[in-house]
Amino acid sequence: MCGLNLIYAYHAVAPAPSERELLTTRDHMRARGPDDEGAWFSADGHCALAHRRLAIIDLDHRAAQPMKSRCGRFVIVFNGEIYNYRQLRQELLQAGVNLRTESDTEVLLELFARDGEAALSRLVGMFAFAIRDEREKTVWLARDSYGIKPLYYADDGWTVRAASQVKALVAGGAISADPEPAGLVGFYLWGSVPEPFTLYQEIRAVPPGHVVRVGELGAEQPRPFLDLPSLYRTDASRQPDVEAVRGAVLESVRRHLVADVPVGLFLSAGIDSSALLAAMHAIDPERVTTAVTLGFSEYEGTAGDEVPLARGIAARYGTDHRVRTVHAEEFHQDLPRILEAMDQPSIDGINTWFVSKAAHEAGLKVVLSGVGGDELFAGYPSFRDVPSWRARLMVPARIPGAGRAWQAVMTTLGPKLRANPKLAGLLRHGGTWAGAYMLRRGLFLPHELKALLDPQLLERGLERLNAQGAMRSLTRSAPKNPVARVSLLESALYMRNQLLRDADWASMAHSLELRTPLVDVELLRAVAPMQHALTGKDILADAMDLEPQVRNRPKTGFTTPVGRWIEAEESRGHAGEPWARGWARWVLPPGGNSQVSCGPASQP
Amino acid sequence: MKILALVTDAFGGPGGIAAYNRHFLTALAEQGHEVLVLPRYGEAAALPAGLTQAQARNGRLFYVYSLLRQLLRDRSFDLVWCGHIGMAALAARVAAVVGCPWWLQIHGIDAWTPCDRTRQSAIRSASLVTAVSRYTRRRFLAWAPVPPDRVKVLPNVVEPCYTPGTKSQKLLQRYAARDCKILLTVGRIAKAEAYKGHDRIIRLMPRLLERHTNLVYLIAGDGDGRPELERLAAETGVEEQVRFAGNVAADELVDHYRIADVFVMPSTGEGFGIVYLEAMACGIPAIGLDTDGSIDPLGALSNGRAVPEHLLFETICESLDGAGSRASGAVSGFQPTDLSTDVRRLLRNAAFSCASKP
After folding, report:
1. Which residues in chain B have Cβ-Cβ distances shorter than 8 Å to A156?
2. Fold observed for domain B169-322
3. Residue A431 is inside which H or E element, if any?
4. How much is the pTM?
């Protein structure tokens, strides 16, 4: 993992990129890449690339970036890992391409130089990169299919700027601070800022599985090379096959272990991380993996304490197990740094912050995380609730006026009954896939936002966000079976916008590369044909032969007592409402300045 | 390509938008496209080859009637070009009837605030939107339901007649400004366009006169806001040093720029501000504020300065101190040939090749 940025003044009258801006943006991402740094200017002075490196594969300076292709025509800055680079490298060598390094960066660069855009769909990994074509005076921006690695860009009409972080782009000083209503509204709807929007009107995320060409007329419409819905569409339909899942998980973990530095593990007491540890052990029984588990004094002696079970799992696989205990004092002490590192407002990520901190303290540069297991193997309650709500509410939701009437009644009675405020939206939203998903995952419902945001901003934000339309389009492109539909919604919305973004800023703040073997296109290809018959993560537990205590443990994930801790902050919620709402209002106060804002305020 | 252009005015029309439209439409015609222009105002004396301009129809109903008659005669157009956001709904309907893509051109303040729902819905169907400046693009994107990659910048250009030259003694005599340093603003003095900032300069005049005793502020242009400015000049005690030139004839405009030492227009409402370009093309340093589209011409050229208002006084003084040595007048990137190059690129744009008729 690294940090990259670029400035391309494509218009004839645009001022040439300033070195000061380029380096300010780059060095704002110092924690993403403490090992090396570089900058490059095109011969005509109109394009500049910069990079900060966290060296993982080929640690030598020869693999530093920006890197020029052998022919001199292409220059790359790259963030991420290409897990199948050895196979692609072999192919290039056999084709007579001389390679100067052992790095995946060079393989990606030379493959692109040879095959152009066609190379992108062959990449297996997590990646975001910018490639400059000196001959055609173009730039290509691309991002992996899941959107594991971030890449943001801003086109002001003369100049395109791109970087791995929104805050780094803003720090450059040349981006307009105009707020993006869709980003603000999206944050309150979901608890994270939904892509492609950001809090800034000018800055957008490169859509996952898409490539953006920047030519003489600026950034063109993003084009898909391998987007997520296409990976879910499969003609084959097969019954769950434990052996096939085991093989696919082992292959994915094997790919994710490619590194020239030790690879550790975030170990909770859950199925996903245990399965990863089991896979690591199966691949190399001699390997002693450093596994990191978080413990909280508040949870000691309760069912929420993952430490005892994690110890048992770690012992079973001969692990170098590090338990790191976090107290409320440390949370309050770290909070300013957490907010500084948080690239976009989020109601989550605290857990990843502390476990990443612990991994960094343990001397790790790379860790595997079990994120993605719930999305792929139907582990969330949403896999049960969303299809069930939709089926039950489809008819009542169509009764004219019923949704509004129910909403009016529950808005009045709900607080008195201390009912979940989202109950008021049950009939209005619950009858469709998109609506039921929003009820399950949403932070606030659209009708509640009137109390939080300026009406004009809300109207514009909702219109631009078109949340229901975007979800409908996702579910339409998914296979007909409910598991695949919810899996796609969870992967393309919650995981992409919340979990993967939090994973990125929280790990990168500790110069730690977080790898996600359960978020892998090849694994998805193997599991997608079985998804229709999945009822939970038993198949993963069976495949990796996990112990009954692990598979029967109630789901907690990497939880933290944040709800209790933040009560000491100004985030105390309204009576009876979920704590995350209060946290959201504190992180990004409606009508006020964002706690995580970098420089200019983000709200009008 | 056969193009139907719906414009407020172009050939035979006054003002910046008409000038922009002329340059744009000429570029199309020079590239071999067949262009039919339907203006609401202006009668053309001469037109470039390949371009036809219909008789202007002032009233809205007359204009639509004339358009319908045209479409009944011939609707084999490949592209509809709409020269003003006020005509967007009409352009979208025409494009739908004809079955071709349409291209919207936006200029300034009209595109900065949300328009009505009908027009917004129409704008959504535009294959391409071009804005005269980055600022106008940004303000437009703040409300318009259009993806950013569909909105490009196509800047104003300056006529080739604007070049550096000697000061006209006749004009210096007319304005009693021999041996004086001249601060110039060119622009309408309309109450509705008070944002142009003539008043800001008048208010600065007493302080400027302390530093440059022989300073004259020359205001070229006229309008219903002039009496107020005259009153302000009197109240400020600088009526002797503020000269109102009134409307300047086209053939005298270049000479007005040439007698100036510094051009200044601290406007807050410019879509682009072509007058800055004209001044700089004449070798005159130009100053404006950094709050609107002015930042594009002023920021891109070496003799332009776009500054925050609190630095306006010092910037004017610095420019007056350095006045005397004229810049080259190079306005690279803002010449008709540059516009022509951009238009050619935009027409090659995938948006049109995908959306054009089979």
Report:
1. 134, 137-138
2. Rossmann fold (3.40.50)
3. none
4. 0.93
